[in-house]
Amino acid sequence: MKIIMLGAPGAGKGTQAKMLADKYEIPHISTGDIFRANIKNETELGKKAKEYMDKGLLVPDELTVNLVVDRIKQDDCSKGYILDGFPRTIPQAEALDKALSDLNDKLDYAINVEVPDENIVKRMSGRRACVGCGATYHIVHIPTKVEGICDRCGKELILRDDDKPETVEKRLKVYHEQTQPLIDYYQGKGILKEVDGTVDMKEVFDAIVNILEA
Ligand code: ADP
Ligand code: AMP
Fold first, then answer.
1. pTM of the prediction?
2. Which of 97, 130, 178, 182 has its CA 20 to 30 A from that of 61?
3. Domain 2-116+169-212 CATH assignment equals 1.10.238.10
């Protein structure tokens, strides 16, 4: 099962992708997580990516596409994978299609998690991410048992630098300009499925599972 998650920043793509990856035992590939790991490890890629991420801009396609194309060729992706945060531009989507068709393969579903902009800023300011395992919580909607501590691995939770309200506004603008056109792109390919992302995360999950198992 090869799935991509579409939706605005903060729509809940990562939350759902992690749950789907657990259920179907396939890798969750988040370009945002890959860039953040590179930033933490102070790699060359991390240094370059940070310049864009801190401004709420997309990392250039040249730094992003090969990373994903190499990743999906790895053995653990043979049964499928969930791409979260990629593609984010039409050239990225075209490059992914090309790479897949070279492998005689194709995507099964593009799941668009719909959340209006009004909800997004509130979600992002309440998002907390674990420095250890990358698990994501929300201080109101998805709280941890002990404040500031990850339920899964016990490490500390942080507010992402790019979740500050001024950066979120910029990220939303970039989303509408560069990423939203992918909805029509995948509609045209006949694999677009839409779910309401404003309801409880379990309900969103059930809606996605119903689509995948229909
Ligand atoms: P994305 O990966 O699309 O940027 P996340 O999965 O990180 O988004 O979710 C953004 C924030 O919203 C997180 O704090 C997350 O815990 C919270 N969240 C995710 N899904 C829901 C939901 N259905 N209802 C309320 N909050 C949610
Ligand atoms: P995310 O964790 O998906 O919200 O991504 C965080 C940031 O990483 C984005 O705001 C971008 O700066 C960068 N990023 C992640 N995925 C991509 C991508 N596919 N193309 C370009 N930039 C990306």
1. 0.96
2. 130
3. no
